[in-house]
Amino acid sequence: MSTDHRFDVWAPHARKVTVRIEGADHPMEGLADRPGWWTLPEDAAAPQGTVRYGYILTKTFDEGTPEEREQVSDVLPDPRSRRQPQGVHELSCTFDPDACEWHDAEFRPRPLQDSVLYELHPGTFTPEGTLDAAIEKLDHLVDLGVTAVELLPANGFNGEHNWGYDGVAWYTVAEPYGGPEAYQRFVDRATAAASP
Fold first, then answer.
1. If 184 and its partner were Cys, which of 25, 36, 100, 191 is the partner (CB 3.0–4.6 Å)?
2. Average pLDDT of span 56-79
3. Which domain holds residue 153?
4. DSSP 8-state assignment for residue 71
5. pTM
6. From CA 182, how far away is CA 174, in angstroms rounded?
7. Do residues 104 and 187 both lie within one domain?
8. One domain, residues 63 and 114
């Protein structure tokens, strides 16, 4: 059985890498053609669908006692994770970006010189501080003459509040804002609202 998610991680100083998926450990293989990269073999038995996972790195040092030379990390989040539901320091979670049903086939952007941009901070734009709550205010922006929205950085960060300038999980959408599904809904509705 193979997984529908590809588990790869760059760990150039690791001697061994294991991916823990839903509590089960799976050894990874170093890629000869991509030094420093580790992957879960395609034929590895791994759960299908949405799973929580993290990486365990084993490093070997030249100095110290035998016990000190080999160090095993805690379970670490995927630095390229698409979802961090419990925060940026916890287990990662697979996410299927293709599960979203888009309604933008007819969308045609306006010429930039005809655009009125609004820079939106998802955490402070509404009292709820979520992208779903921001969707409910898109008509208000259209009434103001806004034709395009630029989101302030919405990637994962440590804590509940952030201006977006010190995010650490660059491929995720912050869970306090609603996570990646809310981001997809916002983009889908914003393109519909911006259509001429």
1. 100
2. 86
3. 98-194
4. E
5. 0.86
6. 10
7. yes
8. no
